[in-house]
Each structure stands twice: as structure tokens, then as C-alpha cells.
């Protein structure tokens, strides 16, 4: 007899385990090779090479030496004229002989330390002799060199001015050098930093030297589409942030860690629930494309990266994104994970953070005295009488007598100081042939309701090795297991929603347990499902929900550098293969429960209510992706020219099988169900594929004139044959006028030392439509019709008329911008203005109306259009004073969308046409009334000339809302409605301010983040007192009400809100008409991140075997300034019943061994 399996045998499981085993073996093999390389003395001083160059730059010869040997050169471009052309023809010569030859008859000297060679200018041979002759009186100088962030600088040059004495810093930034005497001047220099001179006698200053970045010399590279480009040569609207800025966030999701840090990035953290992330868009264009280590992924993959493992995040905001083709029209977020570095020592890093969460803001609720007062008043307003007696009323107002004491349901349901923690251990390093980065992390977050938690385990392994000269192989492996767990409530709603709803629904006159006995959840009538004691109490029998993902990805890259062949110098070929597998198991079991009533006369508990609706749902889905790419890159600089070009061909395939079972089990306790209990059985499968061919050329002349041209030829499975392929080009240009001689010589050139103008225009294609609309066919409807013999049969209906002409949504994006540096680039900034237009948005031709009996819709065509217009800007200041270094930055962005084209809308009336024709109108907002205050007396109502309620103002009371009669017809009607508000989604205006400082081991990092120009329209629980016959938000205590709630003739007491009963039972429609009375156009500023840290002096931490040890305190969402006082400004649920963002206070440490 065969057993019925409710959860299918997952055939992919075997392959999944085989893949993991293969990855383990591969990593083990590479690591064994990696660590064995450290046993080899790679810094041989007897290295010999052959070189044959005729009139080439010295920099090219130095690059060739680095390519052929283990040596690295360090020098300052200001002192060493590396553009000088020389000729050399040597065979099997030591490096020292080659350097002597190319630098003969110059003032360039060098010193060699292991495999590091420091070049420096010697301006006085006489002083050299003098310093050498006084060697016997020399003094020993030691210290550490750091950047403005307090990080040690590796390979910084330290030389004694006017001598050949020199050295460089080690992996920890430490140095040691002999100076002739205390008057000797030590010169500290490093590429990308401003040189600094300190006398040998100033031991205190020499013990810790801080170098400032020289942004004019900094050749930092930025990861863009399929290549890297020097930051100064970037032509597009591109922003990036590094790991240090990401790590200042305590967020569990990467999207949340980006909030307020990048100009042009719009975010909203609508929920603070376990594992929740932020909504994110670039310039409010829509969901962006995410690229992780060169592979396209969705936001879920991006969100669940561990920020510790991220090297950089680059945001492509304009036509620079077009190189990524399909789905790139909303911008691209490019992530590069850490990969170690060649020729660096091993480092082991351990970090841990533990924090405590609390809600930022959740509506306070009425206590029993307030609630009873409101109910009596409501009854009197509606019916002129109440069932409440004066005696009962007085007892509840006093709140001292047993049985008449208020119960705080919010305190009972919401858990304070819910824990959240993060642990990471990683190791990195590299020999001359191999580099690696290995990481493991654990993230845990408990919910604020005692019912849910989120956990995630991440692994990251990035290894690259040079097999033979020029040939490198790399393997990036990342994986994670994440799980969300919660109780399953007895209604078909979001299980976290129920706990928020319970705070509103449970009356303060009721208690969770009968007779306060935790073994008996109380029967509080029809609201029993919101008595959370049945889910979390001592005698609870809760259901459960488990949502679990397991993910593994491996990227294998093979690259060959042809630079050893002179004719192919600068050419690199790369092949990349990526395999991705993910599976999701979901289980939700909803159980029944019992509620009890206590009889104090008999001291018994009687089962009088509960739920008998048992349900169970199991589902499984998996995703398997394969991606292949071949790429040729050509990067070369010669004379005044620089070229960065590539061509790429790539293809992806994705398979997604799904399976689900819904059932009604007969028992709470059995883990499995029988097939007879099935209520629904589902099975699905989808398979997709895409291909693209692309290329780009970035050309720079004289580091002033830059042009970049790219094109992409994409194919999509979603369109009919003949419409599947599209070509999408882009052009980007930049002019570095700050590099012109006339600019540098001018007076303003010393103030505005760097200035670059940019412009870009690109076309992109998007296939964000339903797949296979070009097919006709039928949809099946299970159990839709009862046919002959009383049998339920499956009904079929045509799915749609085929859309055979539907093709790409075509996007054009125009951007102009400027980058600038002031006062030797102590102040840097940028400004961009952009317009994005889209044509061909899918729609049906609704001027042709089909009868409903036909059963299908008209086909889709490329008909509609819209455009986004906006700007973004950023500004940063770097400064220092003695031992204090600091940085202040800010960014701001604005973007709004307008509908430009709507195909022939059909409107029944001219009023509907006026309201609903969206062509050439800004998106967002809604039609509502403009309020003009509130009635303050019955006399004012009686004399009011405008019919406010459509009933001659007979239903009006003092405190009711007055609306503007905009068309002056004496009545408030639909004709008085106007467009009010903004979008209810992401803010149109986003901004952030960051402040960072370091002083003698102390550091502070602060981020203020804010937004504006988006709306929150209040509904139900935060608009009406006691909806659903439950409790009421405490804010409604501030309302218009009678001095004596039992006396309908007593005086009115003014308040902020209308009186109770105004909205109930159809008394009048004045209370909750759509109006700006209930609308808030939000603006807020909050202290998003605050971190205070201290790095233990190295001379102390080294005694414990720790190279660097830092402890810190951090806070998230600590302070908020806003114009809405009832809910958190970021939530997007109109009734306020949601899990709001949380504030988090944490302590942690970082240790490096």
C-alpha cells in the first residue's frame, strides 16, 4: 500500500545537496592552496626580468615590473614624473639595475623593503651626505599612520626629507624609521592623500599621524556597468557608498541601511516587523534592477545580503544604467562584495552587536474612564438615552473598585525591549597568487509582539587565484537560510495585523483572562479572535506559521590578461557562469481554541465561546537559474588618451516549479492531513529565458574631454515573434573644465579647483508585462458551474484576445549634471536634473466595449505614456583641526511623475471627465473637499447659509467640519471637490544629513534622514472613535463634547475632533467625507543613525593579541520631528493598524586579529 505524501518529494533536493558538497570541496581545495602559498618566500630579492621598451612612459615600465614580479611601487605623482618617456633594453637583469638605468640623471631615489619599492625625489645630495655622516647620532621614530576615518593606511611612504632614508607602513599602518636628529623632517605621503611634514622631535604628533584625502589626486574607481572607471572619468549620474557607511546601520535589511545616504534614492520603512525591509526606488521611477557581483537579482536577494560582506553599493541613475538593458529603466543598484586583496597578510575580524527594540510611535488608547465617558456621550448624541447608569459611570470614572478597573491591552500585547542581534566572523588576505574573503554571520530579531521572530544565516566565500601568469580563476559562493516564524491566528488575515488590531478592538473594561486566571482565556463576545491570550497565554493552543528560504549561489569566473603580448596590451577576456538555487517552504496551521466565562457565585469556568475553524496550508516553490556571460575588455592609456571598452554576450534561464495544499484538518495536534481533508490542491511551473548582446566605449582625451557610447541588443520571451528583439543605445559626455590651464591659472581656479559638466541621453526597453499575451487560450475555473446530474464540473473561459503586436515599453532618459570641488576639494558636491519619458505602456483600446457575456477582454497595445521630472544634489565637507578630523555631508532629491498619454478614455459625464482624465496631470493625490474649520455653536449652524450636509444642516453639531463651497452654489456637492494631497507611496522629496568625526580614538557617526511631499490619509481606527465597537484611540478624548454626558442640554466643551456619534449609523455624511481635515502632507526629519565608538590604543590591545579593538554604542530612529502626532510618519496603512518602525538601542564591538 502506497502512502500519500502531502508534501511532494522535491527532486531538486538531491541536486541541491550535491551542489553544496561540490562547493565545500572546491573551497577546501582553494584554501589549502591559499594558505600553503604563505609558506613560500615570495619576496625574493634576486628577481630578474627582461625588458625591451622604446620611448615609453616610466609608469608603463613600472606597471610591467609589477605584472612580471611580486613587487609593488609606492610614490607621489607630484614628486615622480612618471609620464617621462625612456627607452630600455635589458635581458635577465635584477630590478635594482633596471631602476638605476631608467632613473639615471634624475633626482629619483628608491628604497626596497621586502616586495615594496618606495620612489622619492632627492633634492639635495649635500644634505644626503650630511645625514649619512651623522648616522651615529640618529634617533628611532615609531608611530601609526591613519586616514580621517581612523583606519590604518597600508603602504604609506615615510621618508626623511633631503635624504635617501625611507620606509613604508605595514598592514596595521605602523612604521619605524631612524632620523639623523630631532630637527630632521619626516615626510608622510601616499597616493590620494595630502603630504604632511613633521619634525622628528615632535614625538607626540608622530605617534599617530592622520593623512587627509587629496581628492584632486585620488584615482578611486567606481563600479559601473560591466567594468570599473576612475571616479574622475565618470560621465553619468552615479553615486556610491562604501562598507563603512553601510555598517553604521543596525538594520537587518540592506535597503534600510541605504536610507538617507544617497542622493536620488527614495525610501520608506513602512514596517518594523521582524525581517522587514524598506521600499526603495531610484528617483521615484519604480523598482530598480539589482546587480550583485555582476549577476541580476531581485530586491529580496539584495535585502538579505549581510552588510558586512558588501564592499560597495553603486547607484546608476541616468543613461549609465541602460547598459543593463531589460528592467534597467528604473535605475540600477550595483553591489560588489568583498574579495580580499593580493599580497596582504591574513586578517581575522569578529563583530557582535546586541540591541533592544521599541516602537517609534503607536497610537495610545483610551482608558476605561475615557471610554465609558465616550460611550455614554455617543448614546446620548445618537438616541437621546443610554443603557449606562450614573452609578456605573461613576465607578468607572473612579477606577478603584474591583471589576471597574481599567485594563491596558497595549501594555499586555506589546513586548518592550525586544532583542535584536548580529554576529559576524570573517577572514581575508592574499598572497601574490591568491586572494580570499570568507564570512559567516547570524542575524536574529524578535518581534515586538510575543509571537514572531526572524533569523538569518549568511555565508560568503570569494576566492580568486592566478593559475598561470595572466590566467585567473575565481569562485564566489554565497548562501543563506532565513526563517520567519509566527503564531497563526484564527482569521484569514496577516497574523501580525491581528496583534495590532487587538490593541484597538479590545475594550479597556474587559480583561484577557476570566477572573484573571491565566488558564482560562476570557470570552469577550464577538471580538474573541482578538483576545491575544488564546495565542500567547499560559493555556494557549496557538497555530503556527513558518516561512523558510534556503538559497545557494555560485559564480565561477575565468579571466585571461593578454598584456604579456605587446600587441594585445590592455585586453582581457572573461567568462562567467552562475548557478542559483532557492527553495521556499511555507506552512501555516490555524487551530481552534476555547474561551471561558467565570461565574463568581459558583466559582466555575464555563466554555462559552471560541473558534472551530481549523485550517492548514503547505506550499513549496523553488527557483533555479543559470547565467552565462562572455566578455572582452580593453583598458589602455597612452599619451593623452585613455580607452575603456568592452563587448559582452549573455544569456539567462530560470525555472520555477510550485506546489501548494490547503486543507481543513480534523485535529489540532496531527502534523499531517489526509487527502479527504484537502480543500485545494495547486501545482504550477514557469520557465523563462533572456539573452542580450552589448558593448561600450569610454574615451578620455587629456583627462578633460570624455565621451561614452553604449548599445544593447536584447531579446525577451514575453513578446510575439518579430517583436522580441530591441536595440537600445546611449551617449554620455563630460567636460572637466577644471583641468583646463586657463581655469587653473585664473583667480577662481584656486577656489573652484575642480569642475566637471556632464550630459547623458539613453534609450531603454522594458518588458514589465504579463507573459505570453500573444497566445490565445482558456483559463480553467474549478467548481465554477453545476451541470447535469448535479455534478460540479470545471468551467473554461477565453483568457484574452491575443496581443500579437505588443512590444517593448520604450524609455528615454535625459540628464544634465555638474560635479565640483572647492578649496582644494575640501568641499565637493554635485547637482543633476533629469527627465524620463516612457512610451508604449500597455493598455486596451477601451473605445471598443465588449459585452460582459463574451467573457474576455480586448488585447493589449502599446498605447499610454508618462514622464518623471526631478533633480538631486549632494554636498560634502572634509575638515580637520589638530587631532580632530570630521566630515559633514548632505543630499536632497525630488521627483514627480506626470501622465502624458491615455488612450481615448470613456467617461459617462463631463464631471467624470474633469476628475478622472489623467492625461497631462501629476500622479498622486485624490479628490476631496477643502475644510474651513469647525462649527463652534448651534447658533452658528442655525445661521449658516451653505447646506453643509445636504439636509439643511439639520444633522450638524458644534465641532462638525465646515467645507468650502468653491463653486458658490450654496451647497456642498461633488462639484466642490478638488485634487488634494500627494502620493500615498514613496515620498517625492527625500533628504539626509551626515556628520562623522574622529578624535584620539573616539568616533561619532550621525545620520539625519527625512522626507516630505507625500500624504497620510486617516481612516477608520484613526479617524473614528471606537469603530467596530471596540476601544478608541486616546486622541479622540480631545473632542467636542457635552459638559455632562448624561445631559443633552449641558454646555459644549470645545475639542480638536468632532463629537462622537457624528459618523455613526448614517446620522450624517459630514464627518468622514474625503477632505483635507483628515489629510496630512507629511514632512519629517529623524535621527536615523547614531553611533559612538572608541578604539582601544593598539599598545593595549596587542597585549591581548588583538590588532584593533573597537567598542561602540548605536541607536536607530532615536528622535523624530514630524507634523503627524498619531502614527509613525513612514507607515502606509491608512487606519494605523500596523507594525510600525522601531527604535533600536545597541552595544557592540569589532575586533581584528
Automatic annotation (TrEMBL):
GO terms for biological process: siderophore transmembrane transport. Keywords: Cell outer membrane, Membrane, Signal, Transmembrane, Transmembrane beta strand, Transmembrane helix, Transport. Its main location: membrane. GO terms for cellular component: cell outer membrane. It holds the Pfam family Plug. The keyword Transport applies. InterPro entries: CarboxyPept-like_regulatory, EF_Hand_1_Ca_BS, Plug_dom, Plug_dom_sf, Secretin/TonB_short_N, TonB-dep_OMP_SusC/RagA, TonB-dep_OMP_SusC/RagA_CS, TonB-dep_rcpt-like. It is found in: Cell outer membrane. The chain crosses the membrane at residues 21-40. GO terms for molecular function: siderophore uptake transmembrane transporter activity. It comes from the Bacteria. Residues 71-122 form the Secretin/TonB short N-terminal domain. It is a multi-pass membrane protein. NCBIfam families: OMP_RagA_SusC (TIGR04056), SusC_RagA_signa (TIGR04057). Belongs to the TonB-dependent receptor family. This is SusC/RagA family TonB-linked outer membrane protein. The lineage of its organism: Bacteria, Pseudomonadati, Bacteroidota, Bacteroidia, Bacteroidales.
